[in-house]
Each structure stands twice: as C-alpha cells, then as structure tokens.
Amino acid sequence: MKQLKKYFMYAFAFLVLACSDDDKTIDILLPNVERGAIIRTVNINPNSFNIFDPNSPWTLTMEYQDDENGGLLSSVDVYINFVDNNDFNGNTTSTETLFTTVPASEFSTGPFGLPRATFSLVYQEVLNALGVPNDSNAIFGGDQINVRLVANLTDGRTFTNTDVAANISGGSFFQAPFNYLATIVCPPTVPTPGTWSIEMQDSFGDGWNGASLDITIDGETTNYTFNTGGSASFSFDVPVDTEVISVIFNSGSFDEEISAQVTSANGNVVVDLEPSPAAGVELLDYCLDNL
C-alpha cells in the first residue's frame, strides 16, 4: 500500500511539473494560428431582382466579426458580376467589377455587440456598372448577379469567399459565404381580362386518362380534362380585377399522348403543351409579358 501511495505522489508531482513547463505544446501552437474575420449573413430581403423594375433592390444585412469583436474592420468591398443562365438569347458576359465599398463608419453595433450594416444593390445601377444592356437580348429570367464581399482589415489583411471553409460559409451558425447569387426573376404579370380558351388533344383518342390542366385565378383553382375522344374545348372568364393567373399540368396515365393550347383573351397562345409535359410546374412564362 505504501508503495502504491508513493507511486501516486510521484505521478502527481510529474503532472504538476509538466503543466507548469513554459514550453507546453498549446503555448507553442496557438501563437502561430492566424485568426481571420467573417461576414455573417443576417438577412437578405429582397433576395432577387424584378426583371421588369429597374429600381428593384437586392438588400443584405451583414454582421462583421474578428478576434477583437470587430475592432479590426476597415471596410467591406462589394464586387458584382453577371451570370448568364440562358443560351437561347446569346452569351452575355461581363467582368467582375467593384460596385461599392462600405466603410467601417457605416456599421453600427448590433444586438450581439458586433458591427452590422445594411446595403442595397439597385437592378439598373448594377447593369450599368457591368455594361449589360437591360433588354431581352441580353437578360432573361433565371440569369443572376454574383455578389462577392471582401473584408478589409486595418492591419492590411483581406478575407473573401476563397478564404473560408465549408463549415464557415454554409454552417448554420456562421452563415458567412462572402458570396451570393441574386436571381433575376419575372414575377406574375396581370392577365388580360375576358374570355380565355383551352384546346386539348389526345393522340390515341381515349381522353386524358386522369391528367388535367389546373387553372388558378387569384387562388381559386379549376381542373380541366376530358375522359373520352380525341379532343375537347373549354373556355373560362378572367375578371377585370384579376391579379394572378397560373396554369399547371397534372400528370395522369399515357402523358405521351396529350397536348394542349391555352389562348389569352388578347389572342396570344400563352401555353403550347407538347406530349409528355413536365408536371407540377408553372406553364406560363411571365417573362414574355404576353398574358
């Protein structure tokens, strides 16, 4: 027993001496670790550009953090670039451009004691800066503006999206990607009031076999289909004060046999459904502004 006690005493003395050593590994490693900076996403609203509104904004609220609770912040640069996601209207290109710089003086202390700031990009101003014309030959719904942030520190260092790991850029806590995509969207356009028409065909001649066209007018949906024969015609009225119309295809059996056309009260064929159509997606192309 005495030998055992002596053993524990020696072991304890060794641990105390080891922990008081000035050359502990933790003391050697930590001074060599560079602490960076992040720009946390607080909110993005609106998060897209309205293709029909040159004054449409994209607005980001951001929070800056470094190991001095924001004390190293000098400024944040905002770079933009155009992303062409449509091939049918040619290839629109641009060069990444510095759009604006948000100085530290425009940040204020947020609820967690860290600097916060909000800035907006205006659609037409972004296009002007990139030299992209605001017309359908260059831009269409689904194209995007890439927004990249660069944090400039008072000690001369900079941090951007290429300097952060996935758990920082996409993690639920940090949410600091330094990089965003603002999509150019076509919101629903007001439809022409009056009588619209639907022509439906089935190449086998046995109806739509459970499939349908679902027409929704300001939230009220009507299903159109037919059960026998090779074709059917329908009409429906769009009231004067209608704000939104939607046309969705509901799948059935033998969708490869069916086709349909929807014609607006203004005479435009706004849906031309070919065999084996995609189900559950909007068939109206609001970007055409032809309803």
Notable features of this structure?
291 residues, mainly beta, Lipoxygenase-1, 2 domains, six-stranded mixed beta sheet, 12% helix
Derived from helix and strand composition plus strand pairing, the structural class reads mainly beta
Number of domains: 2
CATH topology name of the largest domain: Immunoglobulin-like
Tell me the total number of β-strands. Answer: 17
Outline: elongated
Low-confidence stretches: 1-33, 166-174
Q: What is the second-level CATH architecture of the largest domain?
A: Sandwich
Described by strand count, sense and barrel closure, the largest sheet is: 6 strands, mixed
The helix-strand sequence is HHEEEEEEEHEEHEEEEEEEE
Summed up, the helix count is 4
Topology at a glance:
Layout: H1 2-19, H2 25-29, E1 37-44, E2 48-50, E3 57-66, E4 73-83, E5 97-103, E6 108-109, E7 115-122, H3 123-130, E8 144-153, E9 158-159, H4 166-169, E10 179-185, E11 194-202, E12 212-217, E13 220-224, E14 231-238, E15 245-250, E16 258-263, E17 269-273
